[in-house]
Write a structure and sequence with these properties.
alpha/beta, 7 strands, 41% helix, 21% strand
Length: 179
């Protein structure tokens, strides 16, 4: 038994160094009867803000990546997630990963409860990382979106305008990223 506990501790330590903490979960959505797959990607607090985008890209090698900068307290963020849900469903099975990035302004318990109904990968940054990443990228508010192609190149962002750009724009950006 002691060896099993030590093995589990070692496995967790190794997995947390590789980006995702391998906390893949299934949770029932209150709006849907099907399950929602979500994964918490634990980035160490020591990752510098200028390295965060590289860390995000490493979560989806060879895949398109949709990054949604949001917070649990942001009503427009939650409304946008509902709006994009049909696109996510349509993109299921394609090489696209949806990554949701928030900071410590989203309380830990509230965030943990919220992500159970949001399929995709989830990262909760420290205040230092979140603030400095926003400054580095020029993000003025949330929600804000970035879509990266399979090589990690930005094919779309709405950093200058913020807000949900609409289903047509998001779908076109994702399709472009998949080419």
């Amino acid at each position: 038994m002691k060896h099993l506990v030590l093995s589990c501790m070692l496995l967790f330590s190794l997995s947390s160094m590789t980006g995702c903490a391998q906390k893949s979960q299934q949770a029932s959505s209150s709006r849907q009867q099907d399950s929602v797959a979500w994964k918490v990607c634990a980035l160490p607090s020591t990752v510098l803000p200028e390295k965060l985008m590289d860390s995000f890209k490493s979560l989806a090698p060879g895949k398109a990546l949709v990054i949604d900068f949001w917070a649990t307290w942001c009503g427009p963020c939650r409304a946008a997630m509902n709006s994009i849900a049909p696109i996510k469903k349509e993109m299921a099975g394609k090489d696209v990963v949806f990554l949701y990035v928030t900071g410590e302004t989203s309380p830990q318990n509230t965030w943990q409860q919220a992500i159970r109904n949001i399929s995709g990968y989830h990262v909760r940054l420290t205040d230092f990382q979140y603030r400095n990443l926003f400054n580095q990228l020029g993000i003025m508010g949330i929600p804000t979106y970035m879509v990266l192609d399979r090589k990690g190149n930005i094919v779309y962002d709405n950093i200058a305008t913020g807000g949900y750009p609409g289903d047509d724009i998001m779908k076109a950006a994702i399709e472009k990223a998949l080419q």
